[in-house]
Amino acid sequence: MQGDPRLIIHCGFHKTGSTALQATLRSSETRLRAAGFLYPCAGSRDRPGRISSDPSSSAHHNLAWHMVRHQLCNPAHGDPPAMLAEIAGFAGDVILSSEEFETLLTGADGPAILHGLAGQAGRKLVLVIYLRNQIAYAETLFLELIKHGIGTDYERHADEILQTGHRRFEEAVHCFDYQRALAPLRASTDATIILRNYHDLGPGGIVADFAALFGLTDVLQPSPGREAANQRQPTPTALYTFHRNRTGQRPSPIERNRIMRIAASADQSTSSADLQQRFARRFGPGNRALCAEWQLSTNGLEAAHMVRPASEIPLEALFSFETQCAITTPETADLPAWLAAIGLENTTIPLSARILDRLQQAHRYRRRVADRVINKIFNEPGSAPAPAPSSPR
Question: Lowest-pLDDT range, 117-121, 142-146, 339-343?
Fold first, then answer.
């Protein structure tokens, strides 16, 4: 090893392929050690010789939660003293990875806490941060937070981001105004900061990019079955969970049918063109300045590149109070009437949605068959059990 050993902390941000990187770091730990790098188990749910099949178990979330005093911190999964004990006697570089470190970057004492950890480890601090287009980040974060119980509609979620530059959820803070969030970090510590553009990583994505940064291209090798990152959940499942979060109870069979029929018309929805423009105006100039300072490509981050084709049924209409009312209304109504109730009476209804709508109006036997299919999709009683959540975040 040349020079002082380093404490390399991959801080996310959220929804930039972190799970894939963490799973690869864990599956490559023997080769990493041979190359002079250590990826500790302390602070993650993995244990030496007992690697979980869940790729999110390889992240050091518990270390970050301990530092921000998060309610999800579990002492059994390791804290900073446990991590320091594990790396004692190792002379090389240490790598930590968790998108939950993002919260520390926004706090007044966060940079000092990270620098203190590096000092206790006897290493120079290196922070690696991947930046994502804010409107895409807002969409994927919203769908992720639905899994964890939020019932806020999408428009209010987006408004908080636009007004404050971040999104709070419990003790976690998700950064969106990157230029403002990174300013205290750069002013208060002499750490090496590496910024990367998530939209300009090239073949191999975040794993190949991270490996190239530290000369580990031949070392980091994904393990089949553990390298996949969290995927966007299907629209029917997201809408079902959103409705359950808002009402506090499981949707009835009639409501589940309505959710399926509405979602069939809105699969892979995106933010409206107007909201995309608002995000571009709010965050695009800061992104461009940041890219110029760090000599990054503006691909996907500059205002002109943040606006994407908008879907016919935007997320603001799909995840809203109006949709909740349309699902729970006691009157019998057909699909066009429900779409009109949320202001989408001129929407083109795809063939799949029209077929499902007709089946629901057919005789009782066909309705029972359709109900069984929908129950299986939503993991209702009588269907296969739902898989355990991949990560508390």
Answer: 339-343
Strands laid side by side in the 192-197 sheet:
37-38, 93-97, 6-10, 124-131, 192-197
Instruction: Pull the structure tokens for residue 26.
Output: 């864990």
Q: Region of 15 please: left (phi>0), alpha (psi -120 to 50) or beta.
A: left
Q: What share of the chain is helix, strand, coil (3-state, %, to 5)?
A: 50, 10, 40
Tokens 């790729």 belong to residue: 55
Which of 14-23, 220-229, 263-272, 373-382 has the highest average model confidence (pLDDT)? 14-23
How far are the Cα atoms of 243, 380, 381 from residue 149, in angstroms, in the given order? 10, 18, 21
Lowest mean pLDDT among 3-17, 198-212, 224-238, 362-376: 362-376
pLDDT at 332 over 70: no
**Number of Cβ within a 10 Å radius of residue 213:** 15
Write down the architecture of domain 6-213 according to CATH: 3-Layer(aba) Sandwich (3.40)
Hey, how many other C-beta atoms are within 10 angstroms of the C-beta on 377? 17
Rounded Cα gap, residues 366 and 360, in angstroms: 7
Checking if the pLDDT of 288 tops 80, the result is yes
Contacts of 118 (CB under 8 A, 6+ apart): 7, 124, 125, 191
pLDDT score recorded for residue 48: 78
Q: Report how far residue 220's alpha carbon sits from residue 223's, in angstroms, rounded to the nearest whole number.
A: 9
Distance between CA 23 and CA 220 in Å, rounded? 10
Instruction: Name the β-bridge partners of 96.
Output: 9
Task: Indicate the domain borders of the chain.
Answer: 6-213, 235-268+319-377
Please tell me what DSSP assigns to residue 350: P
**Any long-range contacts for 179-184 (C-beta under 8 Å, 24+ apart)?**
179/286, 179/287, 179/289, 179/290, 180/286, 181/105, 181/106, 182/105, 182/129, 182/290, 184/108, 184/110, 184/111
Q: Which of 18, 7, 390, 349 is nearest to 196 (CA)?
A: 18
CB atoms within 10 A of CB 175: 24
